[in-house]
Amino acid sequence: MNKPTNRTTNRTTNKTTNKTTTKKKQPYTSKLQGVSALLGEGATPSDTPNKNDAPSSSIAISAIKLPESQPRRYFDPNKLEKLSYSIKELGILEPLLVRPLPKNNYELVAGERRFKAAQMAGLTEVPVIVREMNDAITHKVRLVENLQREDLNPLEETEGILELLAMQLDTSLDVVISYLTKMRNVCDRYKDEENEVRHNVMSQTETKVIEELFASLGKMGWDSFVKNRLPLLKLPQDVINALREGKIEYTKARAIAKVKDEKKRQDLIEVAIAEKLSLTQINERVKAANQVAAPVHPLKERYKIALPRLQKSKVWDNPKKQKALEKLLTQIEALVDE
C-alpha cells in the first residue's frame, strides 16, 4: 500500500535537522512566487496546505507518476547531479505537490526537479502534500512553478508565459501572440498620448489580464517580452534545439539564426558550443558566413558585358592592339562559321 504516512517532513527526510544549514546549502527548496496571486490563494501550495490538503506526509517514490505532458522539457544534468548530492546529505525539506490517482498512486504537480534528483539520490520515500485539483488548476500550477526556476531557459520561459496567458484569457496561443503584437503596435503609435487614449484602442479586459500576469511573475514587462522573447519562436529548429537544451544563451541563438545557409548554421552552432564563443566572435562568424561570393557569369553574359566596354575602349587608337584585336576577331568569325 502506498498511502501517505502522517509523519513530519523533517523527521522522515532530513537527516541533519539538528544542524544549522546555510542558504547556500539549501538548493532543494523553492518558493513559487506568483502562484498565490494567480490562483487566488493566500499561500503557495508547498508552503501552507489549504483546507483540501492532506497533511504533509511521506509516500513511496514509486507511487508518484509524471503526467504525460510537463511544461518543463530540459534539466541541466550537472545542476541536477549537484541537487542530488544535496538531497543525499540533507534530504528534501520542502514537500512535493501531488494529487491523488486511483490505486493509491499520485500524480506529480510541482517539484519535478526535486523528484528527479531524489530518484538519482536513491530515495525510496519523499515528502508530499496531497491536494485535490482539477486539470485546469493542476496545469496552471505546473506552469507557474516552472516559470519560477532560475535555470529555465528563455525559450521554455517564453512558451510557458504564452501558455499561461492563453489559459488566463481562455483563447489560443496564436490569438495571444497576435494580441501582444497589437498592444506593442498601439503603444508605439500612441506613445505620446495619455494611457486612456491607448486603452480606448485596445480591449481593457485583455490588457488588464496581461499586465497583471506579467506584474505577478515579476520577470519582465509585457512590452519587453514582445520585443525580446516573441522573436525566439521564429528561430530555425536547429537553433531552437540548442537553446532548449541550454547549450547556448538566447542572445547568441538569435545571432546564429541570422545565418541563412543551414549547413553553415549547424557548423556554427557546434563551434559556438565547443569553443564557448563570445557574442562578438559569433557575430563576426555570422557576417563571414553570410558574405555572398562574386557571381561567376556564363560565357555569353561575359560577352554581353565585354562588348560595350570594347566599343568605348582606347584599343582603337593603338595600332598594336588593333592588330591583336583583328587576329582575335578572325578566330571568332572562324568559330561562328564552323
UniProtKB/TrEMBL annotation:
GO molecular function term, any single one: DNA binding
Disordered: region residues: 1-31, 37-56
SMART domains linked to this entry: ParB (SM00470)
Superkingdom to which the source organism belongs: Bacteria
GO BP terms, alphabetized: chromosome segregation
Name of the protein this chain belongs to: ParB family protein
UniProt xrefs under InterPro entries: Chromosome_partition/occlusion, HTH_ParB/Spo0J, ParB/RepB/Spo0J, ParB/Sulfiredoxin_sf, ParB_N
Gene3D superfamilies on file: 1.10.10.2830, 3.90.1530.30
Record field: compositional bias (Low complexity): 1-20
Residues covered by the ParB-like N-terminal domain: 57-147
Similarity field: Belongs to the ParB family.
UniProt KW DNA-binding keyword: yes
Gene Ontology CC terms, in alphabetical order: chromosome
Keywords attached to this entry: DNA-binding, Plasmid
Species name: Calothrix parasitica NIES-267
CDD domains: SPO0J_N
